[in-house]
TrEMBL record:
Region (Disordered): 31-54, 61-80
Compositionally biased residues, Pro residues: 37-46, 67-77
Domain of life: Bacteria
UniProt-recorded name of the protein: DUF3014 domain-containing protein
One of the Pfam families matching this protein, by short name: DUF3014
Lineage per the UniProt record: Bacteria, Pseudomonadati, Pseudomonadota, Hydrogenophilia, Hydrogenophilia incertae sedis
InterPro entries: DUF3014
Residue stretches spanning the membrane: none
Length: 272
């Protein structure tokens, strides 16, 4: 099993998506009765322009009332935004933890790309905003079974402590302030006209839907890499697998913080 990504960029992106599964198969062609020769042909329908998809979670809902908010500072261009993000994130996490756990270049683009990819099968390590857990994945063997070792769960402790310590209200405020840069990076990623905050909420809901199987979780090792023995778990997304690898207790803490972040960004708690 790969020692991959840290599940979510819990930072100002907070990291994600109810995977949209489209049905595959043949489309049935309806039988259309031909008009009688005497009947005039039906007029051709007037083509209609494709409607813009509605914004489900406008970022304005997360902004404080104008009378309560200080005048916003001007935003730097996206390609020059790293120093401003570093300063904002250091105020949330501390300078040392920021340097220890985060990659500090192309921060906005890393966050956007990782959030977008968490519901997929793989996330590119080169795009991660957070450094992977130290050490190697740890498996245990006993009773004829191969399982995820509890020692492995300890590798995620620094990230879980970070999730517990951060003020989600302030984190959401950082995200809202820099939101135009996140939106720009999302459109640059190949989603013109799409709304990044909608994608973020989809991804958060997807992670919250991660199953919580009974531990220890059984593994198999058909080749070099470990896999989940349960095919239903093996078919989960990269983000959901990360939550399983960090252990049930750690995952519950992360899910609780994700619910808080979701509420801060949308004004609503997710359905349970």
């Amino acid at each position: 099993m790969r020692n991959t990504i840290w599940w979510l960029t819990l930072l100002a992106a907070l990291a994600v998506v109810i995977a949209l599964f489209y049905p595959w198969g043949e489309k049935k062609v309806p039988q259309v009765q031909q008009p009688s020769p005497a009947a005039p042909p039906a007029p051709a329908p007037t083509p209609r322009a494709e409607a813009e998809p509605p914004i489900r979670h406008p970022i304005e809902r997360a902004r404080p009332p104008a009378e309560e908010a200080p005048p916003p500072a001007p935003l730097p261009p996206l390609k020059e935004s790293d120093s401003a993000l570093q300063e904002a994130l250091a105020s949330l996490f501390g300078t040392k933890r920021l340097a220890d756990l985060f990659y500090l270049t192309d921060i906005v683009r890393r966050i956007v790309a990782t959030v977008d990819n968490l519901p997929r099968k793989k996330v590119a390590a080169r795009l991660l905003p957070m450094k992977p857990p130290a050490g190697q994945f740890v498996a245990a063997q006993g009773g004829g079974l191969l399982t995820i070792s509890k020692e492995n769960y300890r590798r995620y402790a620094p990230y879980v402590r970070l999730a517990e310590a951060v003020d989600t209200k302030k984190l959401a405020a950082v995200y809202v302030h820099f939101y135009p840069l996140f939106q720009q990076a999302y459109e640059d990623l190949g989603y013109p006209g799409k709304y990044f905050n909608d994608r973020l909420i989809e991804v958060i809901d997807h992670l919250l839907a991660t199953p919580e199987p009974k531990e220890p979780i059984v593994l198999v090792q058909p080749h070099v890499l470990y896999q989940f023995a349960d095919p239903r778990l093996e078919e989960l997304s990269a983000g959901q697998k990360i939550l399983l690898r960090m252990g049930h207790d750690n995952a519950l803490i992360v899910k609780a913080r994700l619910r808080e972040i979701r509420q801060q960004v949308t004004g609503r708690m997710p359905a349970r």
